[in-house]
Write a structure and sequence with these properties.
alpha/beta
Length: about 70
């Protein structure tokens, strides 16, 4: 099964997207902060990461650079 980490601070958007992707057969995990997503990445690497640009604790592009510095294949 394809696992998706969805990093989104807007609960309404996150829930809607998760429900849609679940219906398509994806397993989706929502993270409301970059910090909580970073902790999850340290324990498990998903197939896909969807990252909101503006998060309460930083910018999505910086988080993408952090991911790429550790897991080039993601």
């Amino acid at each position: 099964m394809i696992e998706i980490y969805y990093i989104e601070d807007d609960e309404s958007i996150a829930t809607t997207v998760k429900e849609y992707l679940n219906q398509k057969g994806y397993s989706v995990f929502i993270f409301e902060t970059l910090g909580s997503a970073r902790k999850a990445f340290e324990h498990h690497i998903p197939s896909i990461a969807l990252i909101d640009w503006n998060m309460p604790d930083g910018k999505g592009d910086g988080f993408c650079r952090w991911i790429r510095s550790k897991w080039r294949e993601l």
